[in-house]
Amino acid sequence: MDDELLDQIVSGLNQLVAWVAGGAMVFGGVVPYIPQYRDIRRTQNAEGFSTYVCLVLLVANILRILFRFGRYFDTLLLWQSIIMIATMLIMLNLCTNVRMTTELSTKRRSFIATEGKDEELRVPKRLFLDFDWNYFWSWSHFLDYVQCVVAFTLVAAYITYILLDSAVFVETLGFLAVFTEAMLGTPQLYCNYQNKSTEGMSIKMVLMWTSGDTFKTGYFLLTQAPVQFWTCGLLQVVVDITILFQVYYYSRYPQKPLSHTVSHTTSAKAL
Description:
This protein is mostly helical. The protein is built from 10 helices and 1 strand, in the order ααβαααααααα.
């Protein structure tokens, strides 16, 4: 009787651990963006965050979902991708609104300073349907980002449907999905380098990236996920650690930051 009770307790604990680990996998990737989201809302400044991080994660998770049609993997990873896509769209919506508000405020100050009465106060619109590469991923409205994501999804889904029977294509698709995600931190890395500062970037976000990516890579190894998953997971951890080194370096050896105008132009990646 005691042995049966002990077995039930152990089984219950194992199930609880599995639920916690599953929940961490599904929602753990979203948690790092909560402090960054709050910082942007509080300061009304999105200069220090690269929106190209959103692009990287959107592309990576769309490709991962398509990869599942060719090669099955854990359902938890599928839900993780769906929730991450929704999170990145929310981040993009906030960053776009803040950026447009900032540009309008700057325009208004310039308008008042010049005392122009005949000049129309407006911010030039940059639209996805203009197909102007100079303004790629720096559009004026959130709807333009949605249009881009939908267009990419439809094209990628069509190509996947046509080539789904090709094992080489499926494996390549899986590699592209996880490799793109492994490059998640590189836009932020480049943005920090351009600004010569990590100001405006949530350090909590990067710390959570590092811990989450370490946990995720371990999960891939323990569940014997496809080799592409854990290999690129290790690469992602290396990028995270490099960003943390930037935090240390720029705080220890502060350098003169570039102007916001130059920073935003040369690094449209600011998430």
